[in-house]
Amino acid sequence: MTLEWALDILQIVFADIILSGDNALVIGMAAAGLAPEYRRRAIMIGMAMAAIMRMLFAVIASQLIGIKGILLLGGALLAWVCWRFYKDLLQFNSGEEAVVDADTEADGSKKFGAALFTIILADVSMSLDNVIAVAAIAREDTKLLIFGLALAIMIMALFASVIMKIMLKYRWLSWAGLVFLVYLTAMMLFDGARDLGLIAL
After folding, report:
1. pLDDT at 62 over 50
2. How far apart are the first and last CA of the chain?
3. Is residue 201 part of a domain?
4. CA 35, CA 104: separation in Å to the nearest integer?
């Protein structure tokens, strides 16, 4: 193993921890606001969709890197996710427990659908960002790209459920998570605008 290859692996690990951890955060936050019987389903679907998105984007990674404005589009999607989360968190932190009985089954299904939509939007945006970052590091090395993809999926699988449990126990942390997502959105929009030459540095 050459030093350059080892450094590439370290960079991919770091990028995956940050970007896949963010994806796990979104999935966990969205699932935490659901009734107990819907939470596991939301996490499993969210992780599956994120994995599929990463595989799809990995196949066309070289083309994605060359598309001007792709990060700006991803940032816009993530901004919409932040707005949806803000509205969801107002209810989630109001102290109301999400309890679903026979009379509120339809409402529970509606909330599940809304949470799933938020998760899918975030999956598209964050998978795009993750694959572009890993592809930029791996360059033409397919093994490194596959390694980065597999690691990203594993990180999400490990952390989404844990994040959901923490959010349920310490609800105030959900606001900290939202602030972090807003920061990521701003950075993604900034990078996208810079790539388009809208911001000169």
Report:
1. yes
2. 36
3. no
4. 11
